Amino acid sequence: DGGITQSPKYLFRKEGQNVTLSCEQNLNHDAMYWYRQDPGQGLRLIYYSQIVNDFQKGDIAEGYSVSREKKESFPLTVTSAQKNPTAFYLCASSRHLETQYFGPGTRLLVL
Amino acid sequence: KNEVEQSPQNLTAQEGEFITINCSYSVGISALHWLQQHPGGGIVSLFMLSSGKKKHGRLIATINIQEKHSSLHITASHPRDSAVYICAVEASGSRLTFGEGTQLTVNP
User: Fold this and answer.
1) Can you tell me the distance from the alpha carbon of A2 to that of B45, in angstroms, rounded to the nearest whole number?
2) Are A37 and A45 spatial neighbours (Cβ–Cβ below 8 Å)?
3) Which of B96, B100, B102 best probes binding to A when mutated, by most A CB atoms within 10 angstroms?
4) Is the peptide bond before A8 cis (omega within 30 degrees of 0)?
5) What's the gap in Å between the CA of A86 and the closest CA on chain B?
6) Which one, of A83, A77, A75, lies nearest residue A32 by Cα?
7) Choosing among B36, B43, B84, which should be mutated to test the A contact, i.e. which has the most A CBs within 10 A?
């Protein structure tokens, strides 16, 4: 089945630790996105990539990093510089100018 | 003021009622999206539209580009329609700007 997967479903981070969230798609989509969702707020764009080996900062990129070495994969690293990482993280992918398909999300909690 | 405003924030209805959720935006857009988010967090795209009206089953989405306004209607609502409904606009490239969502609860 074609789709977009995220892992893990829940992730715990200790203070000062970097953690990486996985996002994989087998839809052959060129574009991939990372969003953060906080209670009472709309989704906010962290990073996006429209093609392999290229990515751009979104509205809230500070404290995060990404890579796009393969078309299918767009991992997000939450670094220790992100002081308020507790949130629900959603990955999405799309063909150019078409609707975005969302993954099931990863909930990140700080211990 | 947010670029995308949804109303109401919360909506409770009885099964069978006709439901309307509104979305207003302040920027020029190339497309508007309606999304559905279930309690587990997963998001499903319902509609992508740039003009007129689209219908899928009991769901209808309309957009008025001149008035910068869109509505999502649900006919014959059912408890399984309970979810958060999110409006998002696409202004440049494929970047989306999201509203805060409308929490819909349909009681049996």
Assistant:
1) 15
2) no
3) B96
4) yes
5) 15
6) A75
7) B43
**Highest mean pLDDT of the ranges A9-18, A19-28, A34-43:** A19-28
Distance CA A24, CA A103 (A): 9
Q: B79, B48 in Cβ contact below 8 A?
A: no
φ, ψ dihedrals at A27, nearest 5°:
-95, 0
Show residues of chain A in contact with B46, CB under 8 Å. Answer: none
Residue B86 DSSP SS3 = strand
Q: Report CB contact under 8 Å: A41, B4.
A: no
Residue B42 in tokens: 């997963």
The pLDDT score that the predictor gives to residue A96 is 80
Cα–Cα distance for residue pair B107/B80, rounded to 1 Å:
9
What's the pLDDT tens digit per position in A50-80? 999 999 999 999 999 999 999 999 999 999 8
The pLDDT assigned to B5 comes to 95
**pLDDT at residue B1, as a whole number:** 59
From the list B33, B43, B94, the residue facing A31 with the nearest CB is B94
B4: closest CA of chain A, how far (Å)? 9
What whole-number distance in Å separates Cα of residue A21 and Cα of residue A74?
A: 9
CA-nearest residue to B32 within chain A is A99
